[in-house]
């Protein structure tokens, strides 16, 4: 099996991923609705949530990036226009943010959350598919099995204390060897398709609308033959 952990299939296919209902800390606002697929070093989780209703959170207890699969979430911070997050859109809620979270009907979203001791910049940051892309470094040359791709990213959120970053990334096609993944990474594919290879020769295919998580150190390869875009969260865990 590959090291990629599936969180959602856009076509509604059943997942073999084992989820368990659990809160992320004692003050988790989604404690009753959260299903965790992975929890590891650095106090990070990858999860899915089904939510209906409205809650007022005086101080969000962790930092969480969410990508809506169905329905619409409204996130309201005092003094700012409400942020409406619909399908295939996302947002980052920073630790310490006072926010009202509303869903008039059933909303499902995938998320990646991390604990941290202090808020670096409370607030809600949207993730956009039409991001303000800038050139970014391709994978290291020694890991590539062909020409280097042209990669771009728009990192819209950074929390230094937990080494947590979130944004949008895209790339031209490329292929990479199976090697230890250098960081924890959540990804929700916006466009294109990827074949993730395992050291045993297994392959997991993912396409637009699918969401997955790869833990730091997990052996995994990458193969894409078209333009790929994704929302991402990354976190480097100190050894």
TrEMBL record:
Domain (S)-ureidoglycine aminohydrolase cupin per the UniProt entry, residue ranges: 160-232
Annotated transmembrane regions: none
Cited InterPro entries: RmlC-like_jellyroll (IPR014710), RmlC_Cupin_sf (IPR011051), UGlyAH_Cupin_dom (IPR008579)
Top-rank taxon: Bacteria
Protein name: Cupin domain-containing protein
Organism: Pelomonas parva
Lineage: Bacteria, Pseudomonadati, Pseudomonadota, Betaproteobacteria, Burkholderiales
């Amino acid at each position: 099996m590959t090291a990629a952990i599936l969180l959602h299939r856009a076509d509604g296919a059943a997942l073999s991923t084992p989820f368990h209902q659990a809160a992320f800390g004692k003050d988790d606002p989604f404690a009753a609705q959260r299903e965790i697929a992975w929890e590891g070093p650095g106090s990070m989780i990858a999860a899915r949530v089904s939510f209906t209703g409205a809650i007022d959170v005086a101080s969000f207890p962790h930092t969480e990036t969410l990508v809506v699969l169905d329905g619409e979430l409204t996130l309201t911070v005092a003094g700012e226009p409400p942020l409406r997050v619909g399908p295939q859109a996302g947002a980052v809620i920073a630790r310490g943010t006072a926010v009202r979270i509303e869903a008039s009907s059933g909303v499902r979203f995938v998320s990646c959350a991390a604990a941290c001791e202090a808020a670096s910049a409370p607030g809600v940051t949207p993730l956009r598919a039409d991001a303000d892309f800038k050139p970014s470094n391709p994978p290291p040359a020694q890991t590539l099995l062909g020409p280097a791709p042209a990669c771009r990213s728009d990192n819209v959120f950074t929390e230094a204390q937990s080494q947590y970053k979130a944004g949008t990334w895209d790339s031209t096609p490329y292929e990479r060897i199976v090697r230890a993944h250098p960081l924890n990474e959540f990804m929700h594919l916006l466009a294109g398709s990827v074949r993730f290879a395992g050291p045993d020769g297994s392959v997991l295919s993912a396409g637009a609308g699918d969401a997955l998580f790869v833990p730091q150190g997990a052996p995994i390869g990458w193969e894409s033959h078209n333009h790929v875009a994704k929302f991402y969260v990354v976190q480097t865990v100190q050894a």
